[in-house]
Design brief:
Layout (H helix, E strand, L loop, with lengths): L14 E7 L9 H10 L7 E9 L2 E8 L20 E6 L14 H15 L3 H12 L3 H29 L13 H19 L2 H11 L2 H15 L10 H17 L5 E7 L1 H10 L11 E6 L3 H4 L4 H10 L7 E6 L12 H5 L4 E3 L6 H5 L11 H8 L13
Parallel strand pairs: 1-4, 1-5, 5-6, 6-7, 7-8
Antiparallel strand pairs: 2-3, 3-4
Length: about 400
């Protein structure tokens, strides 16, 4: 297979590959890829027909063939516009199985782990800097989302404390093994009585219902995983979480880029944009950068960069000239989990930062369901199926 970085093919032979890096959801492999493919088949301006499965370095992809349009409009030169590619192969950099499941811990360990999580996100200077920055930048939905997320974490921890208190010291009754420790037994008894008083109030019956509506379990899992990723928390193998995820996704990108495609487009969604930035900012093969593009959807980098020094460094690296052929950033004010990547518009140009205002009811916005609408938005799909936009020369890229 020839190296497309040195061979220029006519449009009728050009091949494009999409590599989807999904967000943080525990789903089966190819689930998100197949959803993206099913929606790509609905694009009318660039009709695609499903072909056979393909393989690139052991990675399995699905081929889509571009159907010619009847009576294509002529371009400026009077000739019919050439299609952007002949075939589109869609791959998925799967990493959802690396999201650890919630481990069942002893009550006191669960309480301490929860306190550590609340302290990391709620009582953090970086989190409040993100809120202030969002308000100053006019992104009030992001600020509201951050505040709501913090309050939800606090409410979750209060509920956890009540459950633990009623399990270890119901009504202030101290376990037998602690009665010989005067100070400890007094504190445990006070904890049990306090949590018992909280459980006896009317609001206690409403709190679990509200937290279920706000999908608190998913929020806690997300908060814990991001914290472990940023801290590169090691597992039993002694390898950090960030290093393990990077290796997995890097392997998929390496296999596809080595397969000789003329264009390779990394399509990253949600936390997948953090992983993509983490990898592409340090991509070692300079010859790949001329044909490597990034399409980010619903990125949380504008918020999370305040919580991670290395992420902020990788973001700055990605904005340097010649780092990528193209970077298109999709975001939506209807999605309180994301925002426009800071500095992207100034570096790549106004037209490369795309504001999508999803028409979604408020319940979907509050519960975060709008965060998945990028997969079926026609503006995103037409960009992936059509010619990639050329970035304007911004101040940093001049």
């Amino acid at each position: 297979m020839s190296d497309s970085s040195t061979t220029v093919r006519p449009a009728t032979e050009r091949r494009r590959a999409l590599i989807l890096i999904p967000g943080m959801m525990r789903e089966e492999r190819f689930r998100r890829r197949d959803i993206l493919i099913a929606n790509l088949e609905t694009v009318e301006q660039h009709p695609l027909r499903r072909g056979e499965e393909v393989s690139a370095g052991g990675e399995t992809g699905q081929r889509l063939l571009l159907e010619p349009l009847r009576g294509v409009a002529a371009g400026q030169g009077g000739e019919a516009e050439a299609p952007p590619f002949a075939s589109l192969d869609v791959f998925e950099a799967y990493w959802a199985d690396m999201i650890p499941e919630q481990a069942e811990l002893p009550p006191w360990s669960k309480l301490m782990k929860g306190l550590e999580l609340v302290g990391y996100w709620v009582f953090s200077l970086g989190s409040w800097r993100a809120v202030v920055s969002s308000l100053r930048g006019g992104s009030s939905m992001i600020a509201i989302g951050l505040i709501m997320g913090g309050l939800t974490l606090i409410a979750w921890y209060v509920m956890l404390a009540v459950l633990v208190g009623q399990a270890v010291a119901p009504g202030g009754v101290v376990p037998e093994e602690l009665k010989g420790l005067p100070l400890v037994s007094d504190l445990v008894a006070l904890f049990g009585r306090t949590t018992g008083w909280l459980a006896a109030n009317v609001w206690w019956a409403v709190l679990p219902f509200l937290l279920a509506m706000l999908q608190v379990d998913a929020l806690v899992l997300l908060a814990r995983f991001i914290k472990d990723y940023f801290e590169n928390r090691v597992d039993d193998s002694g390898v950090g979480l960030r290093d393990r995820v990077r290796k997995r996704v890097h392997g998929t990108l390496e296999a596809v880029l080595a397969a000789g495609y003329d264009e390779v487009v990394v399509v990253a969604h949600s936390f997948g944009t953090v992983i993509a930035t983490d990898i592409l900012a340090d991509w070692p093969h300079e010859a790949d950068l001329r044909r490597l593009s990034l399409v980010s959807m619903g990125s949380p980098i504008t918020v999370l960069r305040y919580r991670s020094a290395w992420l902020e460094g990788e973001r700055r690296e990605m904005l340097k000239p010649q780092r990528l052929a193209t970077w298109i950033d999709f975001f939506s004010p209807s999605d309180w989990l994301c925002g426009a990547v800071t500095g992207h518009r100034e570096s790549f140009g106004e037209g490369m930062s795309r504001n999508l205002n999803f028409e979604a009811p408020w319940p979907q916005r509050i519960t975060g369901q709008t965060h998945l609408l990028y997969y079926r938005d026609p503006r995103v799909l037409e960009q992936l199926a059509g010619p990639l936009a050329t970035p304007a020369v911004g101040p940093q890229r001049a």
